[in-house]
Amino acid sequence: MSVLGYQDIINGPLSQYLALSAKIGGDVAKHADFVKKAFDAQLQYVTLATQCSKPDQNKQMELLKPTSDQITAIQDFREKNRASPFFNHLSAISESIPALGWVCVSPTPGPHVKEMNDAGQFYTNRVLKEWKEKDATHVEWARAWVQTLTELQQYIKQNHTTGLVWSGKGAAPASGAVPPPPPMGGCPPPPPPPTFDMSNMSLEGGSADERSALFAEINQGENITKNLKKVTADMQTHKNPTLRTGPAPFKAPTTQLGSVSSKGPVVEVAKPPVFTRDGKKWLIEYQKNNPNLIVENAEMNNVVYVFRSEGSTLTVKGKVNNIVFDSCKKCSLLFDSVVASVEFVNCQSVQMQVLGNVPTISIDKTDGCQMYLSKDSLGVEIVSSKSSEMNVMLPVDDNGDYTELPLPEQFKTTISGKTLKTVCVDSLG
Fold it and tell me: Which of 121, 162, 116 is nearest to 143 (CA)?
């Protein structure tokens, strides 16, 4: 049932996602090929769990490598195609594909898939927003992918509630010899019951001398305990605290698919900084401690994208369409005006100052965001989710004085009839 349930996911929502990806074509179709291979590799792993007993951790990592390699390929494809017109599609998959790491999670594999599904929701929502009025195929594509992970979570809840179940009895095969999953259709017939040759079986096991010695030991009565040593107070841990100290218990290192390597721990390789313009998009990546990043001669249809930068300051001169900070740390942004929005995603300790107008500020999974507004930008809409330590600085006068207001992080929800009513809770500190 475990294998058939997983095959239902592949034949159901995943098949729909693959068909829609092929219809969209381009980078989306290429990306989907890696996704299919990842699910096929995991189907083999789930099938193996029904045929073998649980192997040791090193063997598990070896057997998980095909799935891990495909997840890495999915994420690398996105990194290499940041200028793609379907970048939001690629990001939606890359952010949520670690859901396949549920086979390494215990005792909450189902919530892990839910968390990864939520992680990709930011980009699936952008796909829905961008293509809702243009092409319904993209809308169905996003829904098919979300449904795939939703059904994966339900499958885990039904078959592997607290972790992958190894229900087989045999030993795990050698690397490269993982058996293929059973063909679609019905379950194979059960094997015939084992037969035993009872002609040579006897209750008279062991020699007569061995049995006599055993019964003599048992029949000693109270004398059987005369050789035991008395436990004195200095031997008791509750009376002698020094006995409580000792080596820490062994804890198996946690692993996640996407970062598993049979060659040892993964070391992040420092990448060279990037500052380039690709058509309408300005790409600024891997900048370290650079306070002089300047975008000049930008146009209103341009997008500025900053990725994995740290300790740097960006100045954008002129009016652009959109500015995005993704996975940045301790960075600052100074800009004139934007047409659409400024977005902070997966950032830590960032700040921005607008000199002109900004219609929308979006903050997602960011800890620490300081926003200095101008008098022309007081009509801004600030949308935040899964973020903390957010403060808005409102101008008081022309002397550069600001008043600081924190954005709510705590909410109270009550039930009103058949609906929910949510209000902000003011901080008492």
Answer: 121
pLDDT at site 419: 87
In angstroms, the CA 165 to CA 185 distance is 22
Helix (H) / strand (E) element for 209: namely helix 208-218
3-state helix, strand, coil in the chain (%, to 5): 40, 25, 40
Q: Determine contact, residues 119/95, Cβ cutoff 8 Å.
A: yes
170, HSE (Cβ side, Cα atoms, 13 Å): 10
Stated as kind and residue range, the H or E segment containing 113 is helix 109-131
> What element of type H or E holds 285?
strand 281-285
Q: Is the pLDDT of residue 189 over 90?
A: no
User: Predicted confidence band at 368 (pLDDT cuts at 50, 70, 90)?
Assistant: very high
69-114 pLDDT per residue, tens? 999 999 999 999 988 999 999 999 999 999 999 998 888 899 999 9
Name the percent of the chain lying above pLDDT 90. Answer: 51
Burial of 190 (C-beta count, 10 Å sphere; 0-12/13-18/19+)? exposed
Residue 397 DSSP class: S
Q: Are 53 and 170 in contact (CB under 8 A)?
A: yes
| Residue 381 three-state SS | strand
